[in-house]
Amino acid sequence: MIKTAVNLAGVELKNPVMTASGTFGSGEEYSEFVDLNKLGAVVTKGVANVPWPGNPTPRIAETSSGMLNAIGLQNPGIDVFCERDIPFLKKYDTRIIVNVCGKTTEDYCEVVERLGNEPVDLLEINVSCPNVKEGGIAFGQDPKALEAITKEVKKYAKQPVIMKLSPNVTDITEMAKAAEAGGADVLSLINTLTGMKIDINRRTFALANKTGGMSGPAVKPVAVRMVYQVAQAVKLPIIGMGGIATAEDALEFLMAGATAVSVGTANFFNPYATEEVVAGIEEFMRRQHVEDISELIGAVK
Amino acid sequence: MIKTAVNLAGVELKNPVMTASGTFGSGEEYSEFVDLNKLGAVVTKGVANVPWPGNPTPRIAETSSGMLNAIGLQNPGIDVFCERDIPFLKKYDTRIIVNVCGKTTEDYCEVVERLGNEPVDLLEINVSCPNVKEGGIAFGQDPKALEAITKEVKKYAKQPVIMKLSPNVTDITEMAKAAEAGGADVLSLINTLTGMKIDINRRTFALANKTGGMSGPAVKPVAVRMVYQVAQAVKLPIIGMGGIATAEDALEFLMAGATAVSVGTANFFNPYATEEVVAGIEEFMRRQHVEDISELIGAVK
Amino acid sequence: MSEKTKKSLKIVSQKEIGKDIYSMWLQADEMADAARPGQFLSLYTRDGSKLLPRPISICEIDRENRRIRLVYRVTGENTGTEAFSRLHAGVPVEVLGPLGNGFPLQEAEGKRVFLMGGGIGIPPMLQTAKELHAEKTAVLGYRDELFLNEEFENFANVFVATEDGSAGTKGNVMDAIRENALEADVIFACGPTPMLRAIKTFAEEKNIPCWISMEERMACGVGACLACVCKSKEVDGHSHVHNKRICKDGPVFLSTEVEL
Amino acid sequence: MSEKTKKSLKIVSQKEIGKDIYSMWLQADEMADAARPGQFLSLYTRDGSKLLPRPISICEIDRENRRIRLVYRVTGENTGTEAFSRLHAGVPVEVLGPLGNGFPLQEAEGKRVFLMGGGIGIPPMLQTAKELHAEKTAVLGYRDELFLNEEFENFANVFVATEDGSAGTKGNVMDAIRENALEADVIFACGPTPMLRAIKTFAEEKNIPCWISMEERMACGVGACLACVCKSKEVDGHSHVHNKRICKDGPVFLSTEVEL
Ligand SMILES: Cc1cc2nc3c(=O)[nH]c(=O)nc-3n(C[C@H](O)[C@H](O)[C@H](O)COP(=O)(O)OP(=O)(O)OC[C@H]3O[C@@H](n4cnc5c(N)ncnc54)[C@H](O)[C@@H]3O)c2cc1C
Ligand SMILES: Cc1cc2nc3c(=O)[nH]c(=O)nc-3n(C[C@H](O)[C@H](O)[C@H](O)COP(=O)(O)OP(=O)(O)OC[C@H]3O[C@@H](n4cnc5c(N)ncnc54)[C@H](O)[C@@H]3O)c2cc1C
Ligand SMILES: Cc1cc2nc3c(=O)[nH]c(=O)nc-3n(C[C@H](O)[C@H](O)[C@H](O)COP(=O)(O)O)c2cc1C
Ligand SMILES: Cc1cc2nc3c(=O)[nH]c(=O)nc-3n(C[C@H](O)[C@H](O)[C@H](O)COP(=O)(O)O)c2cc1C
Ligand code: FES
Ligand code: FES
To answer: Which pLDDT score is estimated for C205?
Structure first.
């Protein structure tokens, strides 16, 4: 029997494959394509204390082997989320991870506190969204601010806290250490790389927001490098993401030191991607006679 | 008549298209494919005070719409370079830009001083190479160190100095301002993004150096964003690069605020790329009735 | 599980029916059974550097042979649509669909209906014309060269407008309506935003219920990513802001629901 | 300008000649005129996400029809070589070439020569066998399934080794030489590094001049990027360190020049 279960801060996932926040809604839409019961966890789109309308359109643009997005964290707010999205996810035998966004530390804490009584397994704090003016990335690019908000969030959190790191920094290990110092239980990385596309014929930005977050296979080498660096620098478990589309991609992250992985942009070009990654990891393990997935985690040093 | 000439710190280039250091040798190999007389400038591979053997192989790996390289600045040293490479380039009617690398500030200054008596038009200081242990990127990720080395190099330089910036930083404008404060005449960006690839079957790094620099179309959105940000932050002319393969790509950089552009990785999959970019820019200008290329520079704000 | 699937569909035939306008028949099987007029398919290139879907409206459904026809414009060099245009019969294409809501045919049954299409917004009106049992007037707007207009003749009264005046009314679809003093009780329309805006105003002035099919950049095509929103008058059901998802809540909206 | 060009070449024919081994003829025109045995071509995919060249040795040159034959192995799923294997006759492939130096045939004219090939290193020895006027012994090493061996019969005395012993000598090319007590004055060889290392040692022990064709990851293929170096005994002419560029200074090196 192959063992694919992994443990994130005391929470056991049946396998290391989860969805990347913002690419999978709260699971409903893709439940028409994949069996959510087969996933290690579903990570929801970022939710704030109140509904956010997000940015003007165009919100996305295609780039070579990737895309830019500036959705701007449109979300229905925590009330609707708790009434509708959590009950939907509870029907499935998978872990529920709620991605939390905010403009101020208080916003984050309000949502985190509110989720304390909900059947949610882990909280992912998005301090790295490059597409909103306030909050978001401001916390994610300054180690002191990151440590402070981590501490604050931890005061209110009943569930283990995942801090989601931005790749738009000089030294990712410094950020990882700051989150660790602040009491984070798990780290997830990478969020999107800030990018821009110009429409030369219309002489304007391709996105209404000018800049957007780059994701997809194009960013994978940066993501693998950062996961590797962070795995060498801190003791916390890591959720690796950035360009994962296949089991081979996921295995790169696991071998670089990630305990779990998220599939994001790939859902958009292959709605079956998450399930296929789960199956592909199992197949690789069988082929290579790996009994326990923990043998693969951090296998390349 | 269409005017494509641009001016970099007093040096006029017949057009804004140059080669990216390290992808074009000193021009000889690609002179079998393109007419160097048609290019705005040839930028040479980085040269140090003494020959450098570079890194062990494998030195490159393919990634989605990009590549990783860890050549490690193999170069013949300044003596052979002055005897062989400069005379070769002098035969052509194009500007000569020498890319300079080093391990210590003294190394850089030695090469810069030595080039003072050579028929070289501009010097590009590579303080952003992620593939060598000492020097290189250490200077390129710390604004104070960058300002200091810029000042030092300027003391020895007879030609205008281009400081080449690393994209592996939290805030590229801070670096640009530091170089400006240090007396840089021109900025070029971006150098490569640090990345990693893992060979899951052999359970090892794809590159002998573990990490490498990512380049090619995959990085273009990050490069355009940084060029745009820097153009808003400093007054210096900018040489934009990162993923340019076509005239359309080059025009994105020009509109984002670059005065000139470099074609790098694209040479590897299209040895005619540089000349095609020159021709394509002219064609775009004709089609859009742009008489002077300066109308396009920074046209998108 | 749902009707939506992602599959490799074989191209049955493809031909250029106008300058840069291609008509492609796909062997769609269940996707054809499930498809409704006004819905769309997302097509994917096989070039790993072009990842996002190209949403293309369903132009015609051959229910007997279980085929779907797409009519699309090649938007430029080195685009995904250009890649599709180079594919031959027998070659497989990755397709996600059917997506979106489609036109609410029941709202127009038996009434006088305008089927208005502008440019590359014309194709979805064809299957709509085929399936709708009503008194149909197709008002088709072109820049210059006509396409598909003859095929509408079988199902509707056809009026044409061209910007250059080379056929029908010189001007746009609204000019054609005025010039021919056309009238209707319901409007179904698809085309560029300025045209939809004019139709919306016209419909609201005349108090005619009007459904328009909208366009926006898409990533997921299924309502998950919130890329493709348009401004809605009322707070939307999904995000509780004022943003409807064109891919899932649309692409067809009652004109009074949305802002243009 | 030089003999090197990058061009779209039409595939004349392609077939699978062994498990995952494909033989492709290209209409190469001037590239065929310029090509020499032991040189290689860089092939490019049409997938914008796979940018780098796939260097493939020239297996055969049809000088009359100006065609070049490549024999290559598909290395896995979703690779560039897999993409090539799916192309049909008539389809164009982007090719840069001819690249590299080739075997120094003049060094072996009239002598007793071993033409040694291991696995996917066998193909370049075929054109070498065709063009070399000498007393030729081809020693071909396979894992199990044989390919191309019969074609060598026309030009050389052929000895085969297989790892599983299913044909010829059980073992590798060195075992075949020993088992058959073969002798030569010059060696030309291409194959995996362990085989080349054994041949180099053998040649140096016997004091036989030996040229080997080497392999490394390539980006430019023309000597500009310094990706593809191997360690050389002497300071190299280009960078004045100890690194020869396989794409330009090689791929064929005198065994004593390089370290393996
Ligand atoms: C619901 C819907 C139905 C459509 N039906 C048709 C149709 O029947 N026939 C037809 O020719 N066109 C139709 N379009 C427009 C069509 O989707 C675009 O022309 C096409 O995606 C452009 O892709 P490309 O490869 O040519 O361009 P590229 O420039 O390569 O596209 C880059 C990216 O931008 C997106 N994009 C570019 N233009 C548009 C656009 N106008 N709308 C949405 N996304 C865009 C592409 O999908 C792709 O993700 C429809 C669009 C929508 C939203
Ligand atoms: C001078 C030379 C001649 C060669 N001749 C032949 C031949 O005649 N027949 C044949 O089957 N193979 C030959 N090879 C090996 C062939 O180049 C690789 O098998 C091929 O590039 C693998 O590409 P892929 O698309 O299958 O793999 P991918 O994994 O998709 O390749 C990814 C990248 O790695 C490079 N790469 C992977 N493996 C190798 C390798 N072994 N050597 C160099 N680059 C590699 C690819 O070129 C590509 O850039 C030769 C290599 C060299 C250097
Ligand atoms: C359309 C879109 C929306 C996203 N929204 C969120 C979000 O709400 N919260 C968040 O933490 N990350 C968000 N992300 C980032 C992803 O979760 C992920 O970190 C990133 O896309 C890299 O992974 P990928 O390359 O697999 O997509 C979003 C990404 C995309 C493409
Ligand atoms: C193989 C290779 C070697 C490089 N060597 C150098 C170098 O010596 N000095 C330098 O400043 N940049 C070097 N670079 C970086 C390029 O000049 C350029 O900044 C980068 O590749 C981004 O541009 P591109 O995407 O067009 O390649 C090298 C890049 C590559 C791919
Ligand atoms: S495209 Fe994702 S919500 Fe419409
Ligand atoms: S591949 Fe560039 S030097 Fe050989």
So the answer is: 93
pLDDT digits (tens, 9 = 90+) for B111-170: 999 999 999 999 999 987 665 555 556 788 999 999 999 999 999 999 999 999 999 999
- Is residue A244 predicted with pLDDT exceeding 50? yes
Measure A50 CA to ligand 1 centroid, in angstroms.
33
- Write out the H or E segment, with its range, that includes residue C127: helix C123-131
Instruction: Assess whether B129 carries a catalytic annotation.
Output: yes
Chains in touch with C (≥3 Cβ pairs < 8 A): A, B, D
Ligand 5, atom nearest to A29 Cα: 3
For residue D1, what pLDDT band results from cuts at 50, 70 and 90?
Answer: very low
CA distances from A48 to A120, A264, B92 (A): 15, 20, 61
pLDDT at D104 (0 to 100): 97
Q: Measuring from each residue's beta carbon to the nearest atom of ligand 4, which residues come in under 6 Å?
A: B 20-23, 45-46, 69, 71, 73, 99, 126, 129, 164, 191-192, 215-216, 219, 241-244, 263-266; D 219, 225
Q: Which of D99, D131, D150 is a domain's end point?
A: D99
**C-alpha D88 to ligand 2 mean position (Å):** 21
Could you tell me if C149 and C35 lie in one domain? no
Model confidence at A135, pLDDT cuts 50, 70, 90, reads low
* Judgement on whether residues D216 and D112 belong to the same structural domain of the protein: yes
**Which among D43, D66, D99 is the end of a domain?**
D99
In this structure, the residues whose C-beta lies within 6 A of any atom of ligand 5 are C 218-221, 223-228, 245, 247
Q: Which residues of A touch C247 (CB under 8 A)?
A: none
Question: Averaged over D139-167, what is the pLDDT?
Answer: 95
In a mutational test of the C interface, the residue from D8, D44, D45, D49 whose CB has the highest number of chain C CBs within 10 Å is D49
**Token pair in block for residue A8:** 């994130």
Instruction: Indicate which residue's Cα is closest to atom 6 of ligand 4.
Output: B22
Q: In terms of domains, do D125 and D93 share one?
A: no
ipTM: 0.96
Same-domain pairing of C232 and C121: yes
Predicted pLDDT of residue C234: 86
Residue B155, number of CB atoms within 10 A of its CB:
10
Chain D residues whose beta carbon lies within 8 Å of the beta carbon of residue A217: 49
Model confidence pLDDT, tens digit, residues C55-114: 999 999 999 999 999 999 999 999 999 999 999 999 999 999 999 999 999 999 999 999
Q: From edge to edge, which strands make up the β-sheet containing C252-254?
A: C169-170, C157-162, C135-142, C112-118, C186-190, C210-213, C252-254
Residue type, C249: D
**Degrees to nearest 5, angle at CA A262 with A241 and A230:** 40
The CATH number of whichever domain residue D43 belongs to comes to 2.40.30.10
Kindly report the CATH number assigned to the domain that includes residue C181. Answer: 3.40.50.80
Instruction: State the pLDDT at residue D239.
Output: 83
What are the structural domains of chain B? 6-295 (3.20.20.70)
State in Å, rounded, how far the first CA of chain A is from the last one: 27
For residue D120 and ligand 2, the question of a CB distance below 6 A is answered with yes
Q: Does A213 touch chain B (CB under 8 A)?
A: no
- Could you give the residue numbers annotated as active site of A? 129
Same domain, D15 and D70: yes
Which chains does chain B touch, 3 or more C-beta pairs < 8 A? Answer: A, C, D
Which residue range(s) make up the domain with C199? 105-259
Chain B residue nearest residue C77, CA to CA = B248
Q: Give the total number of structural domains in chain C.
A: 2
Q: In this structure, are strands A186-189 and C5-18 parallel, antiparallel, or unpaired?
A: unpaired
Residue type, A37: N
Q: Which residue does chain A place closest to C42, by CA atoms?
A: A269
